[in-house]
């Protein structure tokens, strides 16, 4: 089995629609794909309707969190999307994305970059607006060559010249909310130092005690040393180890299935989840 548990669609900051994502996942030879858009579940219906035969969909979301001033992302899988407390928190985070993005546009304008809110809104195309949309605007304007090049201190990285903070959930509260909604929690790309400061291992140990299920180890932003260190940490803390592409379509160079999760780990995730179940494809439109 080939299992990719971290992918994005146009419901947040990917470039594939949810339907295109599942079709492309099947074409890439995946058996299981997770839809984990940022702080939203809006892509579920379209993805399920288009799900090809032979492909299983894991519903999820990537939750925006912050601890000790450090931004981090929590992958939540197979939770009940209608559970009121988690739904309210996701909406709070998502609603703060628009004023935050507008603030980044204003800061870029102050820096002499002629980006406009209309341009960012067009790029987001109704998705949950985020930094990658602003980064794409910088690429369109020729300010940076790629989206990744916008995530530096010069521009949009945490603490960067055009960075604006948004509401982000305390990860311990996020774990509690996801668990209460029947879901499973995995810390996304915890050693991605090029994105900014990372969460100390002591904090990850505290999260494990609070109910964190796993850590995403095999990821494009982790070098070999980081992966070895994270595997050791996961073993010490009895955490699951996942691997995922963090696919964003054409917005990033990584391909679907570039990194995958062991089938036994996937099986354990599905055993722990009680809020929702994986959806088998029956041959979507």
Can you put this structure into words, describing what you see?
With 285 residues, the protein is of the alpha/beta class. 38% of the residues lie in helices and 16% in strands. It contains 11 helices and 8 strands. The model has no long low-confidence stretch (mean pLDDT 95).
Summarize it.
The chain has 285 residues and is α/β, with parallel strands linked by helices. It is 38% helix and 16% strand.
Largest sheet: 8 strands, mixed
Structural class: alpha/beta
Number of helices: 11
Total strands:
8
SSE blueprint and pairings:
Layout: E1 3-7, H1 18-27, E2 32-35, H2 44-49, E3 56-67, E4 70-77, H3 84-95, H4 97-110, H5 117-124, H6 131-140, H7 147-150, H8 171-180, E5 184-188, H9 201-210, E6 214-218, H10 224-237, E7 240-243, H11 263-272, E8 279-280
Parallel strand pairs: 1-2, 2-3, 5-6, 6-7
Antiparallel strand pairs: 3-4, 3-8, 4-5
Helix pairs in contact: 5-6
Name some characteristics of this structure.
about 280 residues, alpha/beta, 11 helices, 8 strands, about 15% strand, globular
């Amino acid at each position: 089995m080939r299992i990719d548990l971290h992918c994005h669609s146009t419901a947040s900051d990917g470039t594939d629609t949810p339907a295109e994502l599942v079709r492309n996942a099947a074409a890439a030879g995946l058996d299981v794909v997770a839809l984990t858009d940022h702080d939203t579940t809006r892509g579920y219906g379209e993805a399920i309707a288009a799900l090809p035969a032979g492909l299983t969909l894991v519903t999820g979301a990537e939750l925006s969190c912050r601890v000790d001033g450090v931004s981090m992302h929590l992958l939540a899988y197979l939770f009940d999307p209608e559970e009121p407390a988690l739904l309210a928190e996701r909406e709070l985070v998502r609603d703060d994305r628009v004023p935050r993005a507008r603030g980044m546009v204003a800061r870029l304008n102050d820096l002499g970059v002629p980006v406009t809110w209309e341009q960012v809104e067009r790029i987001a195309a109704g998705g949950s607006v985020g930094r990658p949309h602003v980064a794409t605007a910088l690429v369109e304007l020729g300010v940076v060559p790629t989206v990744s090049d916008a995530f530096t201190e010069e521009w949009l990285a945490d603490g960067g010249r055009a960075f604006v903070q948004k509401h982000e959930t305390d990860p311990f509260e996020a774990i509690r909310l996801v668990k209460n909604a029947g879901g499973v929690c995995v810390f996304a790309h915890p050693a991605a130092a090029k994105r900014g400061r990372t969460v100390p291992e002591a904090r990850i140990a505290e999260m494990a005690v609070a109910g964190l299920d796993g850590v995403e180890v095999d990821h494009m932003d982790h070098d070999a040393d980081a992966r070895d260190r994270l595997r050791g940490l996961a073993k010490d803390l009895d955490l699951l180890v996942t691997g995922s592409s963090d696919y964003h379509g054409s917005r990033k160079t990584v391909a679907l299935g570039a990194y995958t999760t062991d089938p036994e780990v996937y099986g354990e995730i599905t055993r722990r989840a009680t809020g929702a179940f994986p959806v088998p494809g029956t041959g979507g439109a």
